[in-house]
Specification:
Layout: H1 3-13, H2 28-33, H3 40-72, H4 75-88, H5 92-112, H6 116-126, H7 134-144, H8 149-171, H9 176-185, H10 187-197, H11 210-220
Length: about 230
């Protein structure tokens, strides 16, 4: 990639990016409240499940489709991937969180970039013609910035994992060293998730983590919550 594309990928992967992902735990809060996740080993096992059974076969497939469609200027294909991702995401909180963070990223990108595809996509989202999921917006943003699609997928995985590790530090007695150790251990799993998504079409999005969906549904009804999801 060019230096400009590489720097753009760094910016999009930075926790400094103001898209609100620090407010979500994607069910982790409820896993901890139910004593299903009690230490670093439990947390790592849960993150492996997320990457292999949700992020890889769903978010990354949608990201790839949006990335390809953005480079071709195909707005309909972007929106089709967007709608499909929402359709296969069972947990209401997960859909809402993905759309909220996606809306913020899309707003930021349209402010920073003069790209007709971004503007038309933002108009479609504003008119409720497309959900505006974070993974899809990220695919569009990286595609238009000439970020390689594999790097974009790895960026998505890295952002997801670091976001949940940040949540875990607020919910568990998880130190920075343990967080970095988990992040290091998950490198190969992230690469596997990216590989798994490579040959899937949007009709082959098959996330399957039933316990995650059940726990997420419990979190929606929790009386006290630190995180939005």
């Amino acid at each position: 990639m060019s230096d400009t594309a590489t720097l753009e990928s760094f910016r999009l992967a930075d926790s400094f990016l103001p898209v609100g992902t620090y407010t979500v735990s994607y069910g982790l809060e409820q896993f901890i409240q139910d004593d299903r996740v009690e230490d670093a080993a439990d947390l790592e096992a849960l993150l492996v499940t997320y990457l292999r059974h949700q992020v890889g076969p769903a978010e990354l497939v949608a990201l790839r489709a949006a990335h390809a469609a953005a480079t071709e200027g195909d707005l309909d294909a972007i929106c089709e991937a967007d709608r499909r991702l929402s359709a296969v995401t069972l947990a209401a909180e997960f859909r809402e969180s993905a759309q909220r963070s996606g809306d913020r990223l899309l707003s930021l990108q349209t402010d920073l970039r003069d790209e007709p595809v971004l503007d038309r996509y933002a108009e479609r989202v504003a008119a409720d013609g497309s959900p505006g999921n974070y993974a899809v917006v990220l695919g569009v943003a990286t595609g238009l910035a000439d970020v390689d699609v594999r790097d974009a997928c790895l960026l998505c995985c890295h952002g997801f994992v670091t976001g949940l590790l940040g949540a875990a530090q607020r919910l568990l007695s998880l130190g920075h060293t343990d967080a970095q150790r988990i992040l290091d251990d998950l490198r190969s799993v992230m690469a596997e998730a990216v590989d798994d998504s490579e040959d899937r079409t949007i009709d082959q999005m098959t996330p399957f983590a039933p316990l995650v969906d059940v726990v997420a549904a419990e979190h929606e009804r929790a009386e006290r919550r630190l995180f939005a999801s």
